[in-house]
Please model this.
Amino acid sequence: PATFSDFLMLEDGEGPFSDAIVDTLWAMVTLISNKVGERTPVNTGALAGAIAQSAAVTYGNMEWVGTVGDGGLAYGLPVELGRAPGKPPPRANIEAWLKRKQIAWAFRKGSKKGQPMSLEEMARTLCWSIAKHGTKGAHMFELGLKDAQPHLDKLFEDLMNEFQRLWGAGSPQAGAGGI
Model:
């Protein structure tokens, strides 16, 4: 079994307890990242490809920080949360989206019914529709974390079991009941 000095090595970021914490934290952020990736809408794949993860452990005060994010893409948050009705999005962004999606035409309604719209007209129409109605969010981070939660609980339980194993339940260092 591990000794009390092994446990104290946590402050130095060394030893079996530290290794177990770091391994578990990385397993957790990787799991969350994978679950978020499964729920991320794919257009060009840039958002799904930008999902990034990091993990850091501060041993002095035992702070664990794991992050999963959109890699700083400007449209990550609007995809996650959606967009409330109000101001229209930049038309150039919508035009670029139409080009990427290879949406080359749409037909007018009203007095010019049946006539094709230009790319600029389609973009303007979409911008004003978004301004009027907003967009629905994908909630990939929120739902990805929710999907991962049972597995995260299991990983944390496994970590506690590893601590128990390393410490040695009932050892003189751990006291009568282990950790």
About this structure: The CA atoms of residues 28 and 152 lie 6 Å apart. The two ends are 12 Å apart (CA to CA). The chain has seven helices and four strands.
